Fold each of these.
Amino acid sequence: MSAASGAEAHFRAEFGTEPAGRWAAPGRVNLIGEHTDYNEGFVLPFALPQRTVAAAGPAPAGEWTVCSTFAPGAVSFGTTSPGEVTGWAAYVAGVVWALREAGLEVPGARIALDSEVPVGSGLSSSAALESSVLTALIDLGGLDVPLEQRPALAQRAENVYVGAPTGIMDQSASIRCQAGRALFLDCRSYEVKQIPFDLAAAGLAILVINSNAPHQHVDGEYGARRKSCEEAARILGVPALRDVPFDGLDEALARLDDEVMRRRVRHVVTEDQRVLDTVALLEQGRTREVGSVLTAGHASMRDDFEITVPQVDVAVEAALAAGAYGARMTGGGFGGCVLALIDADRADATTSAVEQAYAKAGFKAPTCWIATAGPGATRL
Ligand code: GAF
């Protein structure tokens, strides 16, 4: 059953009535630009066809009840503050809170959720959840919130209410991506450029390899990377690492005493450049050449930012050995998914190669599928 039917059926079962509507928001794959968003740099995600759907209907003012096919029962809350609602429902309560904090009159609502986005795989299931609920509440309440302002509201829900110090990329991808396009986002100005991303026309494909090694954001490692970047920017006297120019990198590194911090900075500054290079290659139709940029990005995450795990490194190596043009981990790290740029007719061969490498290493089997660029959040 699709998430749209699932959410609708769950709404009916839980609330005994029809929802007023269904709102879908996708997960994402980030093509390139990892840990650059909170450094006010560049990212290039595309939306997945897999979505989270919120079936929603009205409730009395100041009352919200939410249920999910992923968890038993329903959670009800009123006017809420960070810390009050916990677990999966905190993402919903956080959105209500962030909208109210922005001075908006959020309508009371009953919401049922279902999702096709794999949870805990680095494909932004939490942003998909936030974005589906945000879009539903904005529509139900007839609220005037321009598209470009919506991601920051969902991000605030995650940062302040849920307590995960993530950047703006995932919510931007879920809300602002378009089908057949990758979203080139400037994470300082929030300006976007929609980059044509029709791989099939070039005989290519993106194979997503879920390492099935679980990952988490509400943990210390992500926050530690962010802190180290912010500290480096402070030492270098710039507002954010985005302001360290690529051709001034060596000079900036020479001003940092700490070896680990130097490597963190090198990752962020070179990664921003890789996003710009990738955009230029795509715009020139030189899509195969993006591969080596992706692989360089993986090496940087592995050696400089130190956010990969053996499962993703093995997947990258196996995909490359099987002939992929490039491969890299996508998302926050410490597990999650790898993407490989391959010839479209090499999907089965690449999948088998990765499966064999996993079996040899004694890892839990990976899950592989071809990802295409779907639409952003919308009312169905
Ligand atoms: C996670 C975060 F949520 C994003 O904001 C981003 O920092 C990403 O990790 C790393 O690029 O998905």
Amino acid sequence: MLLVIDTANAEDIKELVDYFPIDGVTTNPSIIVKEKKNFLDVLEDIRVAIGNDRELFVQTLAMKAEDIVEEAMYVIEKVPGKTVIKIPATTEGVKAIKEMTSLGIRTMATTIYTPLQGYIAAKAGASYLTPYVNRIDNLPGDGVQVVRDLIQIVEKHQFDSQVLAASFKNIQQVLDVCVDGAHGVTLAPDLIKQLLLHPSTEANVGAFSDDWHKAFGERTLID
Ligand code: E4P
């Protein structure tokens, strides 16, 4: 199951890659503009932070299929390493995904709100399907249920696509889609850090250390 960082901040990415088993980084236009730097410079900094072997997901901005394909080709040419083109699951987007698939370029169908949008994107050849869990919850709707339905569609009909769920605001949503069999999640840095935090774990670790040092003073395990 993939663990992906949802940010364009290279400093946050460097720190997380150091500590966590990270598979890649997702970006979108709203995340990119927060860095207040040139688009390609932001992507280059992320690429340096994650190396060439992890996937970097870059979203297109255009509305028409031809323009989406042109943007995608530009990104593929300019950004080294493994790049996946994120394309919104609109009618024009699906047309672009079909074109990218025929060229052998990996895509993520993003901004998915319904299982049937995901079905069409999977059939068009998207490598990843990305339902927006928290944004669906806010409609109101049931984001976790959309992920669950999408997993069923992909698995029952043996599509090659993976469900990489996005837009999380709390770790209960993350737990729910993990248990239900999502193929991956993309999470903001603060949520990734929360995955490991538990006060009882911290208390236990402190008590082990205290017991040891009461008995052996400053000695460590190896000296
Ligand atoms: C990731 O691919 C999406 O762009 C992102 O998770 C959207 O999340 P948000 O709803 O927190 O903006």
